[in-house]
Amino acid sequence: MSVKNEKRSRxxxxxxxxxVVDDEADIRELLDLTLARMGLQTACAGSLAxxxxxxxxxxxxxxxxxxRLPDGLGLELVRHIAETAPDLPVxxxxxxxxxxxxxxxxxxxxxxxxxxxxxxDQLRGIVKSALDLPGADATGERSxxxxxxxxxxxxxxxxxxxxxxxxxxxxxxxxxxxGSGKELAARLVHHLGAxxxxxxxxxxxxxxxxxxxxxxxxxxxxxxxxGAADDRRGFFQVADGGTLFxxxxxxxxxxxxxxxxxAIQEKRVRQVGxxxxxxxxxxxxxxxxxxxxxxxxxGRFRQDLFYRLNVIELRMPALRECREDIPALARHIVDRLAxxxxxxxxxxxxxxxxALQDYPFPGNVRELENVLExxxxxxxxxxxxxSDLNLVPAQLGGGVAVAAGSLxxxxxxxxxxxxxxALKQSDGNRTAAARLLGVTFRSLxxxxxxxxxxx
Length: 455
Hints:
Helices cover 48% and strands 12% of the residues. By secondary structure, the protein is of the alpha/beta class. Helix 2 (25-37) links the parallel strand 1 and strand 2 (41-45). The protein is globular.
């Protein structure tokens, strides 16, 4: 059967079998009837042993399993399927309010979870999402490779992890320095997953005033407060069925962290001014350049929220960890920038490529793009020379003398010089300087205050 015909058959439910594993006969019957109404075939098992026998004798496209079974835990079945049939999505049915079980199931490789009492609407949504998962075909692989260029071990590893993560519904925490491509990774996870046809909503948590956070995240009803002239949906409602990407999640105040945790656990939100809650189905992906574990230890980030968000951790490598990829990446960026300017892409001189590979890039890929965009605009010859790059702090790593003092003193000295150089290049424009350094304006302002550079 061709790929196109197979997709059509899957859309109609033809030949799709679901394995239902639960020791309660009434639950099995409820799930069986619901799936049958969706046009799906089912096979039921009341124990782990029966489930393993069915898995060995038949092929399934989805498995629904209870957490507690007479001869073991549903987690054992999740792990068994992950080892023997990694392309088979598994959804786990957990006890109501059992956040720990839900997180454990997701960490073990479950596609998603549903709490008892089983909501049939939620069940149908999970089934549809699972059966909409894209196959592991060459198209998806080329998509990741074209978006994340490079053949360094760090990039190859992160590309493979993104492809695996995309086949789950588990929350993802993307760690990495500013400018390392965290939002790009989040968009790839969404694009390669079951929610690719639905909304991807990106939110910069550090850019929302604290007094507006609840209404921005959950929406509000008309008349809820002064200025609320009409009903308005929040980020959760807009992303319903899709992916909600929370960038710089560490910037959320503790009061908002509590509300976010409840929304994640209950999969329900209440608009400001409303008396009832609405069900929402979103996949959460968060990112931050800060160390969330350290923030938890300092009491600045809730441990229970960290536990829910950090089910799968994906670390984006810094550009200096992928130096061998810089020449190809630089040529790709120059080609793209030249195309946008309707001009032929100039070559990069060997000395320019060598200078780029020697540069530490504290702002990572974002800074590389800024450097090349400036060089393309200001170059005077037929090719981009090393002098066009204006990499003033390029020798910071080896040129700063280690004077007497602590490591922090040395780091402050390096950071102070980098900020001063960026401000000089941007003629004192702090917004432009922050862009050059690959940090947010808020972060630059904080660093300048700490280093007494505001005078």
